[in-house]
Amino acid sequence: MRLIAMTLVALITAHSAPANAYKIHPSLAIHEAMTALAENCLESYQGAEPYDCSGYYPEHLEYFANLDFSNPVYNLSVASRWSDDPQRMNRGLGYLRFGLVFIGCRSRVDNHPGLDDSGLLCNSHFGRLQFLHAMASVGGETTEQTAALMLQWTGFTYGLASGEIDHQQNYCRYFEGRGDALAAAMWRPDFRYCGDRTDGPAPDQWTLGTPFLLRCASLVSPCQETVWDAGRREVRVTAMGALLHMVQDSFSQSHVARGDLTSPRYEARIRCLPAERFYNFNGEDGRGQDGHSAADQLPQYDTESCNAAIRTVDDPITASARLLWMLDQGHSSEQAVAYVRAHVLGLPPSSETAR
Ligand SMILES: [Zn+2]
User: Are 298 and 24 in contact (CB under 8 A)?
Assistant: First the structure.
């Protein structure tokens, strides 16, 4: 009986937890839909820089959320869900594994905060990798620190997606040399999966691509890693999906307060205004707390702040499309970071990336 109860809890958690970005409906594929809309909008500009995709959004989000995402044409859409299920557990019996892991996440992160100990899923939802969802990590992180992490994540994921950063590099050597906030979140001196791959892929020797390539849907086997050419393709699309996920999450009012801080919280409304404060999943005003059920519905654009003629911060569909356009055009990761800084977070161009 107890096992049945635990299984049910695990299954319920598995179905509800990954979709907490906008808290619309557990089964609504909002990231997939936003990404598909962005690709659609980009196509409509026929190679020109997409200036405004906001018209697509309110009218077509629900329709796009019901596309058949098993079709490979929507690979990027599926990849933009990666940050919610970074170990790709949510299929078949893997749902059970997801639920069982997720239930224990809080204590795992408290007791073993390192990414190599508590894993990607727990760390990105409860630990130091909450910036993957445009949120502050535990421990009183400031707005500037979260923004800096998000910008460093932008450079890293965009660089992997464009090939500017070689995903086959040794994971530990790459982060060991950086000494910035992203490295502190992703790595520590006794990181478990350091090592050189002299005999091909090995799960205990991470490359930069490994976190984007793990598949852990089996209940009994260890995680598998996609390798060789398939791995190269998957790193590129997944890293870009992870970047789009963060950008899209940053417009959810249960993650980020935009504009003035006095407006009602958790309203399901997308405001194209500068990010003022990042919430924390574990904090007093974070996700999962009372009061944000108001955001639990289909979000609408704030037509005033999202007016393309006057806004400085783009809406999430336009921002996603513009980043995809930059990738297509061969723009550098530095240019992508500058774009996210100015037109997603709404920070002044000259502001320093805090370390
Ligand atoms: Zn998210």
Answer: yes
pLDDT tens per residue, range 336-355: 999 999 999 999 875 554 44
Query: Hey, which of 8-17, 208-217, 291-300, 337-346 has the most confident mean pLDDT?
Result: 337-346
Pairing of strands 214-215, 224-225: antiparallel
Pick the more confident residue, 261 or 147: 147
349 domain residue, yes or no? no
H helix or E strand, kind and range, residue 277:
strand 275-278
Residues 6+ apart with CB under 8 A from 309: none
27 or 57: which leads in pLDDT: 57
Would residue 350 count as lying in a domain?
Answer: no
**What pLDDT was estimated at residue 9?**
38
Give 53: exposed, middle or buried? Use CB within 10 Å, 0-12, 13-18, 19+.
Answer: buried
Residues spanned by the domain of 67 = 2-343
The rounded Å distance from CA 195 to ligand 1 centre is 30
More confident residue, 292 or 58: 58
Spacing, Cα 197 to ligand 1 middle (Å): 32
DSSP label of 205: B
CA of 80 to the centre of ligand 1 (A): 9
Is 70 inside a domain boundary?
Answer: yes
CB count within 10 Å of CB 84 equals 20
The CA R_g of the chain, rounded to the nearest whole Å, is 19
- pTM of the predicted structure, to 2 decimals: 0.88
Separation between Cα atoms, residue 228 and residue 78, nearest integer Å: 21
Cα–ligand 1 centroid distance for 132 (angstroms): 7
Nearest of 254, 336, 261, 329 to residue 293 by alpha carbon = 254
Task: Tell how far the Cα of 333 is from the centroid of ligand 1, in angstroms.
Answer: 22
For 112-122, what is each residue's pLDDT tens digit?
888 888 889 99
With 90 as the cut, is the pLDDT of residue 18 above it? no
Look at the chain and report how many structural domains it folds into: 1
Pick the closest to residue 150 from 235, 246, 242, 34 (CA basis). 246
